[in-house]
Amino acid sequence: MDEARMVEARMVEALDDLNPAPRLLMGPGPINADPRVLRAMNAQLLGQFDPQFRAYMRQTSQLLRAVFQTANRATLVVDGTARSAIEAALVSLVEPGDRVLVPVFGRFGHLIAEIAQRCGAEVRTIETEWGSVFPAEVLEKEIRKHQPKLVAVCHGDTSTTMAQPLADLGRVCREHDALLYVDATATLGGMDLPADAWQLDVVSAGLQKCLAGPSGAAPLTLNARAEERIVRRRHTEQGLRTSDAVDGDGPPIRSNYFDLAMIMDYWSDKALNHHTEATSMLYATRECARILVKEGLANAFARHARASTAVTAGLQAMGLALFGDQRHKMANVTGVLVPAGVNGEKLRRALLSHFGIEIGTSFGPLHGKIWRIGAMGYNARPDAVLATLGGLEAVLAGEGFKLPRGAAVDAALAVYRESAG
Ligand SMILES: Cc1ncc(COP(=O)(O)O)c(C=O)c1O
What we know:
By secondary structure, this protein is α/β, with parallel strands linked by helices. The protein contains 14 helices and 13 strands. It has helices at 3-14, 35-41, 51-68, 82-93, 107-118, 136-146, 169-175, 224-231, 260-267, 279-295, 297-317, 344-355, 382-398, 407-420, and strands at 24-25, 74-79, 99-104, 122-127, 150-154, 156-157, 162-163, 179-183, 202-204, 217-222, 333-337, 357-358, 370-374. The strands form four sheets. Strands 2-10-9-8-5-3-4 form a seven-stranded mixed sheet, sandwiched between helices. The protein has a two-stranded parallel ribbon with strand order 1-12. Helix 5 links the parallel strand 3 and strand 4. Helix 3 crosses helix 10. Pyridoxal-5'-phosphate is lined by residues 29, 81-83, 108, 154, 157-158, 183, 185-186, 206, 215.
């Protein structure tokens, strides 16, 4: 086909209705959004300074405080995917030359280190093999050794499916006068992470995992210690300055969009203009948080833990081996080894085309070695787990992998029956 015909054919295709195939998204995220969240996103748009919209913003903060288990005043939403809040936190906290310690146990630790580097930090990383996490005493020893201004760590790293225990880290950071930032993108709402009780200074997340929404909004909370560090870098945008504006004496934050000093002013009662709010994403965030708070955090954590037990029981009943240190497995994502002789990508394609079910591939040192199966947010449901195990069994058998037919679904059903009884 010549170039002109190709362009024409592409345009015909582009004019088709948007009609995505039904899919069950059982990878490490995104997952299927709760239909209530999608409905909320259909609501009428409002201007960001409409009193009703400001009330929705305040309500969103209020609901998110419950989700983060915090009383932090500054609990807000960064517009963008989860990584936007990581950037906002780091660019606002890190002054060029600050030492930042990043414990790396998977891809997202590397991401934090890279962002901190771009912010001008003197980054010190410590690494552990993918599939493991750091013992608390190792983290304490490294903090004592490096004396960082900031420790920045991922809670659940979806690349390895491991969750770093964090209950003691906040205390240790305080003893060494370091701030603690936590990337809870993949665990908030699915695993317990009480920001105040664990003394986490800044925590951020995304909607597309345990919060049951689409990606595109990033909830973030920061406490008074973090606020103090950020506010001394406040430099109000020239075109918005009023005569009583007072700048901080610290170096300006090197990003305008991700300047948390300005974003806090925008979310506060000052309502100082910054970006044009992503209205529909704010509605989505409010609905995600509302649904979770209504369910009850403890119930949501138990639902994710149950789904995890059912998934692992099913995979093991099929004769598959789980990946990583199971004592530290995330509740919402499970890593499983691709068995010898099976082409992992071919199997994923078969699962998608025959069953409409997506599971995750892997990258870095795990590339081609494991699949990652998520059961989180709206999809941490028995029917989603059972359908995934059933489909996986069928396509594995189709690939010639010998397994006891029916055992996976039976094992997962037994977990659900036991927890109901
Ligand atoms: C732990 C973790 N952090 C950060 C991110 C980045 O999120 P996003 O792609 O929404 O920017 C992800 C996405 O998978 C993640 O799992």
